[in-house]
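Hi support team,

I submitted a single chain yesterday and got back a structure, but I'm not sure I'm reading the token output correctly. Could someone confirm the output below corresponds to the sequence I sent? I've pasted both exactly as they appear in my results page.

Thanks,
R.
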Amino acid sequence: MTNTNDFRRYSYQSDTAYLIDSFDFSRGSQAPKLRPQEKPAEKLRVRENERLKSRSELKKEQKSAFRHAVRVVGVAVLSLAMICLVLHSLALKNELTKEISAKQTEIANAQSEFISLQSELNSLVSMSMIDKYAVEELGMTKMKSNQIQYVNVAEYKVQHKKAVQKKKAAENKKTQQKTAESKGNN
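Hi R., thanks for writing in. Yes, this is the structure output for that exact sequence:
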């Protein structure tokens, strides 16, 4: 089912006057009118005490007011102490952070110095430097091929064992002779 207003809406779409009217209606620059505000009824009313309070009631009220004031002051002092503790811990944390960063820079400087000293040491201990020192300072010469001797390890071990056994036998003889002489003297 179609309404006649539907066609009219489409037919007026290109009409400028229609667009201006719709603009004023839907997105106008005027603020909508507000209802006048009603004044709120006065809620505070002063009324007089109809009966007088006794001394005990007054003292009770004073004690409860004093307790309430003490609680408020206690909470305020406790809050102030907690704020001070938090500020102190933050200041301490800040100091420790500064110390840590200073130590880290010291470590970085020491590491860079270590690397430079290590490279200097490597340059001083190179084989060419050792050869140069041995030849120039100590008067040494390089080894010639006729100075090289090869040793058979198995034969060396056998000869070494025999030499050690001979030494032990000679030492045993000496100790036996000393013990025999010491017995003869007694």
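A quick pointer for reading it: Helices lie at 4-11, 16-26, 55-124, 127-136, 153-185. Let us know if anything else looks off.

Best,
Support desk
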